[in-house]
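Supplementary Methods. Inverse-folding protocol.

Structures were first reduced to a discrete structure-token string of length 402. This string, shown here, constituted the complete conditioning input.
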């Protein structure tokens, strides 16, 4: 009887955990270290950029959006209009807007609870829809808008437990079967991508956005595995028999998640771009985040665009900018490659602070080696009211950045 119970438990765990798409023997080796949703607004259309037009993007994180969300709907609309006007006047053409920073939603969602950053009524319903306003406003300025999600990071334990259990993440947290996990030293909870139902929820969330909003793209950044600790996904790893190597198992789990996001978006609209923004340090992507960036760049079905965060100066002793840029360029074969640049380091790191025009120069270098554009992190830093940042904006606006 005891043996039967154990078998049933293991079978249930294997069903819950699911399997990645193929075993380790078929994979390349790891590189060596070094509410009801709103319908489409009728007066806005996705922006179609010319094929040869460089991407000139800026990230608007929840930190950028939070001050705009602190008032009324009219306040937010006016504030985001100013954001779009500033970006347009600077010659930018693409916005990556944060809509799911912590397993939550800055939009009307049936899958994820409303973000604590969005004003809500006494019953917890959001008072207005930020994403609807952002897409309408951005498109009125002919700016492309991509919905930016963090796939695996959740709220804190206190915040998540305050939501009703009608949401799947809350149910998983309460049931405690491994889909939602703790990470030592981190105040946030995390989803475990080795569970097939977790990957499905993330993909369904991307599809929900694409079905209900006029977004030009789905964008997600480098919040993949939050730890290298083997205990994080031990339940699923221990009941599968296709992998002996935990690293390759995790790489394939993340890749399967990316593939499911891609398929779910393309099932809604083939023209919606899927972009991934990993760390600029390629080795770190493999060793710490389990992000198989080379595979995503060289094989179909994972992304249309990659935006590596090459947040390094020319004199960086570990990852100098030009060398890192050229490494990424050499890996890429057919995908759109847009380079993430660290505007936020101006004023906090000497090489960026002391060299006026450094971001402009890095953008030029990216375009000169054949990349398809650049993205600036982040909006608040870029439009800081300082003489030094004014210099940088003047250079970005100049004709030297094509």
């Amino acid at each position: 009887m005891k043996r039967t119970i154990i078998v049933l438990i293991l079978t249930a765990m294997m069903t819950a955990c699911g399997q990645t798409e193929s075993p380790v023997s078929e994979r390349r080796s790891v590189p060596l270290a070094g509410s009801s949703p709103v319908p489409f607004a009728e007066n806005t259309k996705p922006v179609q950029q010319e094929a040869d037009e460089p991407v000139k993007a800026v990230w608007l994180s929840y930190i950028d959006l939070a001050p705009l969300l602190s008032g009324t709907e009219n306040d937010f609309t006016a504030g985001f209009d100013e954001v779009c006007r500033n970006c347009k006047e600077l010659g930018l053409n693409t916005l990556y807007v944060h809509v799911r920073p912590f397993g939550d939603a800055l939009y009307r969602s049936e899958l994820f609870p409303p973000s604590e950053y969005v004003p809500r009524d006494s019953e917890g319903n959001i008072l207005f829809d930020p994403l609807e306003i952002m897409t309408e406003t951005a498109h009125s300025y002919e700016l492309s808008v991509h919905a930016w999600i963090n796939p695996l990071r959740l709220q804190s334990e206190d915040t998540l437990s305050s939501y009703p259990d009608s949401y799947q993440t809350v149910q998983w947290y309460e049931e405690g079967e491994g889909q939602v996990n703790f990470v030592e030293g981190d105040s946030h909870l995390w989803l475990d991508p080795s569970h097939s139902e977790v990957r499905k929820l993330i993909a369904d969330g991307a599809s929900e956005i694409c079905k209900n909003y006029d977004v030009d793209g789905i964008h997600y950044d480098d919040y993949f595995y939050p730890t290298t600790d083997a205990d994080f996904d031990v339940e699923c790893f221990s009941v599968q028999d296709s992998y002996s190597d935990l690293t390759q198992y995790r790489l394939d789990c993340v890749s399967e998640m990316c593939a499911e996001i891609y398929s779910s978006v393309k099932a809604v609209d083939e023209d919606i771009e899927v972009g991934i923004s990993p760390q600029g340090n390629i080795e770190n992507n493999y060793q710490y985040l389990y992000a198989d960036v080379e595979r995503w760049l060289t094989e179909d079905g994972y992304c249309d665009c990659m935006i590596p965060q090459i947040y390094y100066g020319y004199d960086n002793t570990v990852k100098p900018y030009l060398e890192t840029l050229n490494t990424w360029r050499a890996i890429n074969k057919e995908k759109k490659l847009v380079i993430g640049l660290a505007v936020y380091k101006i004023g906090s790191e000497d090489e960026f602070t002391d060299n006026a025009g450094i971001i402009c120069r890095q953008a030029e270098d990216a375009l000169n080696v054949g990349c398809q554009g650049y993205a600036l992190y982040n909006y608040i830093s870029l439009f800081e009211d300082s003489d030094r940042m004014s210099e940088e904006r003047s250079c970005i606006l100049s004709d030297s950045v094509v």
